[in-house]
Amino acid sequence: MTKIGIVVIGRNEAGALANCLSSVEEHRGHIVYADSASTDASREIATDHGALVVSIDPAIKLTPARGRNEGFTALLGLFPDCEFVQFIDGDSRVSPGWIEAAADFLSSNERVAVVCGHVVEEHPSRSIYNWLCSTEWQGAVGRIDACGGNAMIRASAFREAGGFRGDLVAGEEAELMARMRSKGWEIWRIDRPMVIHDSDIQRFSDWWRRARRGGYSYANVWWLTKNSREPLYADQLRSSLLWVVALPLLVVALGLSTRQPLLLLMLPLAWGLQTARIALGPGAPEKPSWMYGALIMLAKIPEALGILHYASVRAIRGN
């Protein structure tokens, strides 16, 4: 346990940070809290729990990736012999026994760079959006391509890969882990609870904004990796643009060219059939699967808007 360090990131997490830090209390002295310009009591709470507080400079665009990178650097300055780093989002708390299980797994598997477990949604019944998050986090166990920001990472692999891309607003985990895998490292999920998380998405507008940010990050990461051996998020880009842009344009063009306005009904029919396929497919939860299918399809609209926003930004920049 002496070789493990903790990096917590957050911004205005005063409501959850105390519980987060209490869940790793046994590592007091090896904890860094990277704060992204909080205006609440987050920094004071972290100090009270024995964490070294690193304030991220807001003059440069604030991202979770920057917080993790600067937290990692501070941790290694504080604790040079650290071998494994547990990264935690400030709105999560670590499940009992996870740190030990993850460290044992990394110790026993020298080519594994990252190990994660299951993210448990604390209040899935509070909103349909929380419930959707809980279904998204039920990932496969075993060797995987990537995981989220809550994970334990081997410090030597993190240094070798160069850390996260600090300019990415989202999708930075997949991009880093693709670089790790290109160097022969492995990413694993083990069958253990890792963190308990409260998404706290109560409003449609918050869910919509989250999905739009996801589309933007898909486009951003794909652009950065498009010439690599493994371009990331190409399938997500194709799916969103197909259903929201290409198919509607095709149906409208067909209706106009044939002067058959009833052909426009093909679009809602196609959307309905795809929703049913998702709802009844093997990946759908037992219930409410129809709502699951509808939300998965509806999310393609804000995702496509995010993709188009990124395309417009690149066009304005001229590169």
How are the secondary structure elements laid out?
Layout: E1 4-10, H1 14-22, E2 31-35, H2 42-48, E3 52-55, H3 64-78, E4 84-89, E5 92-94, H4 98-108, E6 112-121, H5 128-136, E7 142-144, E8 151-154, H6 155-161, H7 172-182, E9 186-197, H8 204-225, H9 234-258, H10 266-280, H11 289-298, H12 300-317
Parallel strand pairs: 1-2, 1-4, 2-3, 6-9
Antiparallel strand pairs: 4-8, 5-9, 6-8, 7-9
Helix pairs in contact: 1-2, 8-9, 8-12, 9-12, 10-11
Explain what you see.
This protein has helices at residues 14-22, 42-48, 64-78, 98-108, 128-136, 155-161, 172-182, 204-225, 234-258, 266-280, 289-298, 300-317, and strands at residues 4-10, 31-35, 52-55, 84-89, 92-94, 112-121, 142-144, 151-154, 186-197. It folds into 2 domains: 4-202, Spore Coat Polysaccharide Biosynthesis Protein SpsA, Chain A; 234-317, no CATH class. Strands 1, 2, 3, 4, 5, 6, 7, 8 and 9 form a 9-stranded mixed sheet that branches. The chain is α/β, with parallel strands linked by helices and 319 residues long. The chain has 12 helices and 9 strands. Helix 2 (42-48) links the parallel strand 2 (31-35) and strand 3 (52-55).
List the main descriptive attributes of the protein structure presented here.
319 residues; alpha/beta; Spore Coat Polysaccharide Biosynthesis Protein SpsA, Chain A; 50% helix
How do you describe this structure in short?
With 319 residues, the chain is of the alpha/beta class.
Q: Please indicate the count of domains.
A: 2
**Which oligomeric state applies?**
single chain
In CATH, the homologous superfamily of the largest domain goes by the name Spore Coat Polysaccharide Biosynthesis Protein SpsA, Chain A
Shape: globular
Determine the number of helices (DSSP H or I, runs of at least 4 residues). Answer: 12
Which structural category do the helix and sheet elements fall into? alpha/beta
Instruction: Tell me the CATH topology of the largest domain.
Output: Spore Coat Polysaccharide Biosynthesis Protein SpsA, Chain A
Biggest sheet, open or closed, and with what strands and sense? 9 strands, mixed
Tell me the distance between the termini: 47 Å
What is the typical, i.e. mean, pLDDT?
A: 92
How helical, in percent, are the residues?
40-55%
CATH architecture of the largest domain: Alpha-Beta Complex
The ordered string of helix (H) and strand (E) elements is EHEHEHEEHEHEEHHEHHHHH
Beta-sheet strand percentage?
15-25%
In total, how many beta strands?
A: 9
CATH class of the largest domain: Alpha Beta
Outline the low-pLDDT stretches: none
